[in-house]
Amino acid sequence: MPSVCIPHSSYPVMPGTLVGAFTDSVGRIVGSPFKVGNGPTTLTVPQGAGQLQLGVNDSQYSDNNGAWDLEITAE
Q1: Which of 11, 36, 66, 67 could form a disulfide with 18 if both were Cys (CB 3.0 to 4.6 A apart)?
Q2: Predicted model pTM
Q3: Are the CB atoms for 13 and 57 separated by under 8 Å?
Q4: CA 42 from chain center: how many Å?
């Protein structure tokens, strides 16, 4: 599960949680991966990051269904 890369201060990170990481132009993680909360989450893009990658904290894909609605704004 991707949550093994998230700092333990952010736990719990339950199965099915939307998680994210900023990455550089070739996909290397920049900064710390994080869980996406329910309600406004303010993030600072780390220096060197060029992408935001999102995924599911999951390791069994056969039972997956559902969706998230996201709104991303830059300030």
Answers
A1: 36
A2: 0.79
A3: yes
A4: 13
